[in-house]
Amino acid sequence: MGRLPGSWDPPAWSGPWKGLLLAGESRTPTPTPVTITPASPALGGNVSLAPQNVAQNFTSCNWHRSTTNDETSRILTYFPPPNPVQHNGPAHTGRETAGPGCALHIAGLTLSDTGNYTVQVQSRTSPGLGTVVLRVYEMLPRPTVTPNQTLVLENRTFTLRCNSSPSADTVLWLRDGASLVPSDRLVLSSDNRTLNVLNVTRGDAGAYQCEVGNPVSSIRSEPSTVTVAYGPESARIEPSELPPQPLGSLVHLMCVSESVPAPRYHWVLNSTELKETRSSLTLNLTSLDQQGTYMCQAQNPITTGTRSNALSVPCTEMLPRPTVTPNQTLVLENGTFTLRCNSSPSADTVLWLRDGASLTPSERLVLSPDNRTLTVLGVTRSDGGTYQCEVGNPVSTNRSEPSTVTVASSAADSSGGLSPGAIAGIVIGALAGAVLLGGLLYFLLCKTGG
Predict the structure, then answer these.
(1) Residue 29: cis peptide before it, omega within 30 degrees of 0
(2) Domain 323-408: what homologous superfamily?
(3) Is 430 helix (H, G, I), strand (E, B) or coil?
(4) Phi and psi angles of residue 44, each rounded to the nearest 5 degrees, phi first
(5) Residues 263-310: pLDDT tens digits?
(6) CA distances for 210 relative to 145, 184, 225, 240, angstroms
(7) What InterPro entries does its record include (predicted)?
(8) What 8-state DSSP symbol labels residue 202?
């Protein structure tokens, strides 16, 4: 460095100045504390190293970039006013200057300026010696967490690494923005840069970050996503039950399963696998063949776990009009007749009516197990009339056309006389005989006259 304003050029360094310095060294130096300003100097900034309690009559001071005062590490020698002079040494970089009180100023700090600095104060009465450690801090770059994505099974282990500048003094870990506290399961390395999570639970899933800091900066990494694979623990179909569905309707089924990652789905109808592989299934019911038991299967591709659930989907149709056979019946009193209701298999109920009134089964009115056949025993005159069957299911009802039953009386009534039918037969027979007889006589008369 050049000559300071108001300074004067000292004699050669090997001349009487060296003897003067050595004379000062003959006394035991007093430990001299050194203050660093600012306390946490940043890369590219400036710093001052100021020895404290320096004797007012000090004659010179030496600064060394080391813990010793050897010549190779000497930065500079400073002579105070009234004729201040700075004599640069082998370790001078061109950025160091001395000032009042023997303070050392370093400009444009670099990371290589970090290290030990020793000051040797020369005084005939109270020489001093002090050493201080200077650390230059950089503005930390953003750290990274590796791996940036992790998929792990429950009860397993995963490890994350925080990659950061060596200048980082602190390393903190966060999950979903909240600081993590080390525990038996959350284990940190000695430098906090490695996080091991043992016996993983679902609560360990989330976005992990590390935050590094030093006295002049702090910065947080981008998130690293940890996914914990589990399930499926169950599967269910929504809706959970269905009433009979009429043909022509649309039915939407949804398979719900808690699983990470999302499961693969399979649908089965009556043991036959369907093509649908999504969680939803839409049915366009056009045939009774589509009714039955639908089963949803959910399988986790990572855990390989599988769960299933089944739902009955009944189908029904709008019932066509049934028919009663025979459509006309003539039966004698005390006899028996049978009527049959012909209807769709989708009919859940079959009712019988006579003259519009419902019939109740009895010892004489006997129904088959499916109610489709009606047998009337010991027929009475009151059993005559119009018979119908009415079929129904949850979506429709329909009634047949009437089938007429006529009850004919027996030849004699219960008192032993002729029945009205028998009398009518006799009368008709007599009239027919008279007609025939009259016709015969007319023929004979006509022939005789001719």
Answers:
(1) no
(2) Immunoglobulins (2.60.40.10)
(3) helix
(4) 90, -10
(5) 999 999 999 999 999 999 999 999 889 999 999 999 999 999 999 999
(6) 7, 20, 12, 46
(7) CEA_cell_adhesion, Ig-like_dom, Ig-like_dom_sf, Ig-like_fold, Ig_sub, Ig_sub2, Ig_V-set
(8) G
